[in-house]
Amino acid sequence: MTSSNPYSQPEQRIRDRIESDGPITFSAFMEEALYGEDGYYRRPRRISPEGDYFTSPTSHPGFGALIAVQLRDFWELLGQPGGFDAVELGSGDGTLARDVVGYARLLGGPFNEALKYTEFDRSSDESEVVPGGITGCVLSNELLDAFPVHRFVVEKGEIRELFVGLGEDALTDVTGPVSDPKINERVGPLLERLPDGYRGEVNLGLTKWADDVGRTLDRGYVLTIDYGEHAPELYRPGRAEGSLRAYYRHTLSQNPFQHVGDQDLTAHVDFTAVDAELSRVGFGALGLTTQTAFLDRLGMRSFLAQLPGLGLPASEVERNRMPLLWLARPDGLGRFKVAFHSKGVEARTPIGLDSRGSGHNASLLPPVTLPRDDSHFDVAAGAYPDAFGGGGSEFTATWAELLGEDEQPSS
User: Fold this and answer.
1) 245: helix, strand or coil
2) Residues 342, 222: contact at Cβ < 8 Å?
3) CA-wise closest residue to 368 among 310, 408, 318, 329
4) Most exposed: 14, 99, 208, 323, by fewest CB within 10 Å?
């Protein structure tokens, strides 16, 4: 923005478009704010202590390590093919990719030799082509929640769309007929339970995403990590304000019209729609679990148990313990959902979804710790004091306390 123009470039383009053509869908607004020229995801990533938010991969390399364990399990379920492709959609700065590949090297053996990891990110300026016809896995972490969404409101028992228009001083909501019949298809079955004034979001971008996944993966698994619920939970009377959220410098708000192009916008994922769209292109839903349970089953306890025996100073043990626990804390990152889908596979349940036990082969996992200088954030040093009860003094002391005494993580 310049001294003569109070608006960011994305907001000015949005205003010009509305002045020319009238109100636009919220999806079009979100597309411009996040992915248009100089939009939020076209700028340097804001995943940092000085930025807007942090993610599971940037919290500790243990997250990527356990994803590698799950990928190895997928490879085994597929019959240990000589070539196993892992395609990450929405790879961002590549932290997850580096951690997965790095831990695969530690695991070694035929799986490491078979693994080919490909990153793809929409915000990249490079010309990237997603491979097609692979055997392996398509995975994503916090990708679908950033897809542009349509917003709606219930008025007199009918679904009306919330468009973006111009008020006297700011962008504002404008109500009108729905712009796409798929909005009614998604919300209609649950409309009777929604009160007048109820607001929500519909992610129509899942259709293209599923088409892309179908073209990419010929045989194997889809691993999707994001926050969201199945439709009956997502569209319920108690969530009358919807799930749309804005993140600006670690501050959460529900106003999407502030800091346009300079704040992140997200909405919870409808996993019922995810199941339906992937089913349309040939994938079966294996199940949905929490990140807490997912990481526990893959070996998180092993990483925590090994820390005291690594010969590290007490400060380093704590520096690693806290983010590892935060990854699985039910009221922290552990609240994320992990969805499993497959095509052309008939075998046992993947480890990360198997509720019959936890920590399969965990004693065989090499330990993993935070390097001093890399892309991970030193959470324990105070970068995110609010996340750990004021620098960690009130944070959960043990895994048992995290989950509850003698409690196993739920599915």
Assistant:
1) strand
2) yes
3) 310
4) 208
Residues 6+ apart with CB under 8 A from 172: 164, 165, 166, 257
Contact 166, 251 (CB under 8 A): no
User: Count H helices, E strands: the chain?
Assistant: 14, 16
Contacts of 349 by beta carbon, 8 Å cutoff, 6+ apart: 286, 287
CA atoms within 13 A on the CB side of 288: 15
- Residue 182's beta-bridge partner residues? none
Tell me how crowded residue 357 is: count the other CB atoms within 10 A of its CB. Answer: 10
Give the burial string for 127-155 (b: 16+ CB within 10 Å, else e): eeeeeeebbbbbbbbbbbbbbbbbbbbbe
Residues 6+ apart with CB under 8 A from 139: 67, 71, 86, 87, 88, 89, 222, 223, 224, 225
Residue type, 100: V
Smallest CA-to-CA distance from 259 within 40, 54, 41, 50 is with 40
- What is the rounded CA–CA span in Å between residue 287 and residue 168? 48
CATH of domain 9-403: 3.40.50.12710
Q: What is the CA radius of gyration of the chain?
A: 22
Banded model confidence at residue 384, pLDDT cuts 50, 70, 90: very low
Q: Which of 16, 58, 6 is nearest to 37 (CA)?
A: 16
Distance CA 251, CA 361 (A): 40
DSSP β-bridge partners for residue 175: 162
Q: pLDDT for 130-152, tens place per residue?
A: 789 999 999 999 999 999 999 99
pLDDT value of position 383: 44
pTM as predicted:
0.90
- The residue with tokens 């046992």 is 348
